[in-house]
Amino acid sequence: MAGSPRRTPPVADSGPEPDRCLVRAQLDRLLPGDPYGVLPLVRTILSERALLLDPDRVTLRVFALLARSRAAAPGIELARRTILDAVEQALEQLLEEEAGDLWSSPNRDGGDTFSRFAVSLGLDADSMGEARARFHMLDLATRAAFLHLVVEGRPLETLQVGRGQDRGVLLRSAREALDIFRASLSPPDSPPSTHPLP
Amino acid sequence: MTAPEPSRQDLPSRAGLPVSGEGVDRPEDGDLGVPAARPGETVEVGSSGIVGSESMEGILELEFARLNRRSLASLLRQATGVVVPRAPYYGVLAGFPLPPQSVRLWRRRARAALRLVRGAKSVPSAADWISQLLVRPVERWPVASRLARSARRVEDSEFTRITQGYALLCEGEAGRAHNVFRGIEGCVRVLRHAWRVHEGLALSLELLGRHREALETMETAAEDPRRGVSAVAEGLRLSLLYGSRSRARRSAARLDMLVEERSPAFAAVLGRMRLRARILGLPSPRSAELADLVRRLAMEPGTPSGRVAVLLLSS
């Protein structure tokens, strides 16, 4: 499997589905001590993709996906590619679900770390949730610039830019991303506050 | 896939299209009572990390429950793709957001999914209902909109709502389709397929006789960077019928710039427009100015805008 150029199909949809006992058995192999390093991998990918998702939540979804797919082929060693595909699938699903949760479960008190953080500050979890979902609709360069400049507070000069990109443009984009979160924090008529962006 | 052409005797005229007005999507007799998705099936995790956590069992059960719901909602959504070609206006009013589905493949996927979820506490009704579909001949399956609504009750997502809206359009239920799209419109800022919502809403508004709103809404769809060919082409059609000359010219230029004249997607849109014109009739442009623009565009039938104009001239 390693080095195979062919993309592995979505893990939860591959082959005949096993029954639940086999799934539980696979979970027992995947979980203790995280032998396949799923959580560190998830953290790395979330950082690379500049996504504001709870790494624990993503990891749980990955475990669930892997357990379902591995139960169909219990004797085969778990390949790195399969784990990466499961992470991709988990991210795609959770990003879809975060939008759907906004209208299917209003007035939640929030169940993930991000929502609980918002609630602990007296903020409305749904507004923050919507802001996060809108943030995730932005392009990667904008998200990365926002995290670099706003969340991590690093100087503009250290922001890595790709070919054809301009730091000034990314700065403006980061400000727009910041406005998405500001809008969820401020009452409608309050004046815009300043932020120490460069 | 081309819908079999219904006879004129089976369908009402355009004026008599079964428009249910601004009605509410009411539960119907025979709805098999698929329970709505439980709100906020989120996962409590400790800040110290999950690996080795004593609450792992319960936490992962929630994730499996969520995956089960996704799986079953997806199956029900795909089931709409199996039956929707039977809908009277399939291939007429709007392109369905799913390709036609093979019932054989659907049954295989359904059996596989049911082996996994059987016994799970969270989705007994949905699993039972899919089991019923497995043993029924497809001719006795519920209509597409009922299947789509059940999918939405299992998992209320962007995809299940959009599927429900388009299923209703294919069944000629413009009022109910309007309600579904309107219900999700407020969330377009976080939708990955917002253009589909605007397109569906625009088509339902047109059927309800709210032409100006339809045009504005379709323009929103056409301006969406992720839009499909249909939104751009329908945007031109509506501009030429109900807009202004300047707006229609911009729409024509946009269509010609963005769409390949020979693209299969554009051909499919034109096919729907022709079928719609034959079955429902075709209105005329609302002004002499627009009618003149239609004639001018039709002089270049090799362009996408010219082909749309030629179609409008055939009224």
Structural class of chain B: mainly alpha
Kindly, what is the distance between the CA atoms of the first and last residues of chain B, rounded to a whole number of angstroms?
A: 25 Å
- Mean pLDDT over the residues of chain B: 83
> How is the biggest beta sheet of chain A arranged?
none
Strand content of chain A: under 5%
Using CB atoms under 8 Å apart, which protein chain pair has the greatest interface? Answer: A-B, 45 and 42 residues
Low-confidence stretches of chain A: 1-17, 106-110
Describe this structure in words.
The complex is a heterodimer of chains A (198) and B (315). Chain A is an all-alpha fold and 198 residues long. Chain A is built from 8 helices and no strands. Chain B is mostly helical. Chain B has helices at 56-83, 103-117, 124-135, 144-154, 158-170, 174-185, 194-207, 211-223, 229-242, 245-258, 264-280, 288-298, 304-313. In chain B, helix 6 (174-185) packs antiparallel against helix 7 (194-207). In chain B, 48% of the residues are buried.
